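Try this one yourself first.
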């Protein structure tokens, strides 16, 4: 038989002789101590300037920053949950010195006070990491992007193409009404002309409808359908056009946006739970890492990665007043513009282009434009049969990012009866090819760089450096969707997330 069971003494109502000190309840080396130590070390003057004098006293910005950073470090993103933690959680209570900001104060601080200045706080923390020798701002950085869903509903879309179609339809109906009015009231409309498409705006449309109405006023044989359409047009078209104009301003050249979060663009989401790549309102997050620490983050409204790199690098330079020696990125960034920008800034581009991996396995495709030898001194190409292809002209092409590319055209001399004709090209006449010499040179240089010993090391390291950071943020810490709307507020969320990630990893 076993001995008598003995339980530890337990009396929840017993008073302790001395109250507990919160300090004793927070172990040495606990992440909350790291947050306090680091936030105490940064300069919060940019934040202080956001406060106006007078009125009731405010919680100190350093205290509020600690609350949010530790909140994001412990996956507590909601302002109401943060309010709860400040009142109940020993670590939060210790960090805040028992102060208890409410959720409105927390939200206002995050949305308004941190907007536009958090990047300066973030960069100071990266500089502390550099001082400790953990990262180097001059060494290679690894860049990649991911899409994070907006808080807006996925059924709130506005499409740029749809607005254009609606305006075109309105113009066609207006032309039809104008033509009808001309047919029965030519005299009244003789000194006026129908609207051009560029003039389709609320004022001009209103004016044109009034002119048609005035011209048809005394006419008895006006069809009922026309009167009905004119009444509808007068009542709705100017108002609809005003709405379209407002939406086009918010779109600012984008193809889509969300009605409830106009800064968000509809993007194809890889991680969609339906696994069918649904279009959802989202932002494109770009980060540059080193040793899995985030050194730079930017948020973009364009779904394509290549368009984000120039401004991403500009911000790096602006934050640290220096540039990395190299950038390592996948084929999504390999564009003529990006190679040129990096070359100009003296940064080595270890960036693949879209056909790099295929070319490494199979070689350059026979008969493709890239396979044709170019004689730079005499400016001609050599066709697969060894014949010269003479330069026949130059042109320009503007990319979707507004970058101007120079294109040179070359034409073969005699494709008639060539035994290679069937596999070389199918078009009638002699083969004409278009070559972007700038991109061609950049691709050749990139291939050489990527195949050096250093290039191979970087290529192996990239997926192990930057990609796990996204996995940490999205999967381990459950941040798949923003809580706030608008570019400035979502940027703050990413800033807090990046600071929290760096602190979590720093003292892990």
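Now uncover the answer:
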């Amino acid at each position: 038989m076993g001995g008598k069971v003995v339980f530890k003494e337990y009396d929840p109502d017993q008073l302790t002789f001395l109250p507990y000190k919160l300090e004793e309840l927070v172990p040495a080396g606990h992440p909350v101590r790291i947050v306090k130590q680091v936030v105490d070390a940064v300069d919060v003057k940019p934040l202080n300037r956001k406060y106006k004098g007078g009125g009731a006293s405010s919680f100190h910005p350093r205290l509020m920053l600690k609350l949010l950073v530790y909140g994001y470090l412990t996956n507590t993103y909601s302002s109401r949950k943060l309010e709860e933690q400040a009142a109940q959680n020993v670590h939060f209570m210790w960090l805040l010195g028992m102060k208890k900001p409410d959720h409105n104060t927390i939200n206002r601080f995050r949305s308004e006070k941190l907007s536009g200045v958090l990047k300066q706080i973030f960069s100071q923390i990266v500089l502390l990491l550099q001082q400790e020798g953990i990262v180097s701002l001059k060494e290679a950085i690894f860049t990649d992007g991911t899409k994070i869903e907006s808080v807006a509903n996925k059924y709130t879309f506005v499409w740029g193409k749809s607005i254009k179609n609606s305006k075109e339809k309105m113009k066609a109906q207006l032309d039809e009404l104008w033509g009808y009015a001309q047919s029965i009231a030519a005299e009244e409309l003789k000194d006026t002309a129908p609207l051009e498409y560029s003039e389709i705006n609320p004022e001009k449309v209103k004016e044109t409808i009034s002119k048609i109405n005035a011209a048809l006023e005394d006419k008895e044989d006006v069809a009922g359908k026309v009167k009905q359409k004119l009444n509808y047009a007068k009542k709705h078209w100017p108002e609809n056009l005003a709405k379209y104009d407002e939406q086009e301003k918010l779109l600012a050249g984008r193809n889509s946006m969300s009605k409830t979060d106009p800064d968000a663009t509809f993007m194809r989401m890889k991680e969609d739970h339906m696994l069918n790549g649904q279009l959802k309102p989202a932002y494109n997050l770009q980060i540059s890492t080193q040793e899995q620490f985030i050194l730079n983050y930017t948020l973009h409204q364009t779904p394509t990665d290549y368009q984000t790199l120039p401004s991403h690098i500009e911000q790096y330079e602006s934050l640290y007043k220096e540039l990395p020696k190299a950038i390592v990125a996948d084929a999504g960034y390999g564009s003529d513009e990006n190679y040129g920008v990096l070359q100009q800034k003296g940064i080595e581009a270890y960036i693949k282009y879209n056909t790099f991996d295929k070319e490494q396995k199979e070689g350059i495709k026979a008969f493709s434009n890239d396979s044709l030898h170019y004689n730079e001194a005499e400016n001609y190409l050599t066709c697969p049969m060894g014949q010269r292809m003479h330069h026949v002209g130059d042109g320009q092409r503007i990319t979707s990012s507004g970058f101007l590319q120079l294109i040179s055209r070359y034409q073969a001399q005699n494709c008639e009866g060539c035994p290679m004709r069937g596999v070389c090209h199918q078009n009638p006449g002699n083969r004409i090819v278009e070559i972007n010499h700038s991109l061609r040179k950049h691709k050749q240089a990139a291939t050489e760089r990527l195949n050096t010993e250093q290039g191979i090391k970087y290529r192996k390291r990239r997926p192990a450096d930057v990609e796990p950071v996204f996995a940490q943020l999205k999967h381990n810490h459950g941040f798949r969707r923003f809580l706030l709307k608008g570019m400035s507020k979502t940027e703050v969320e990413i800033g807090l997330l990046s600071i929290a990630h760096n602190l979590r990893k720093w003292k892990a």
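Discussion: DSSP finds 19 helices and 13 strands in the chain. Residues 224-251 form the longest helix (28 residues).
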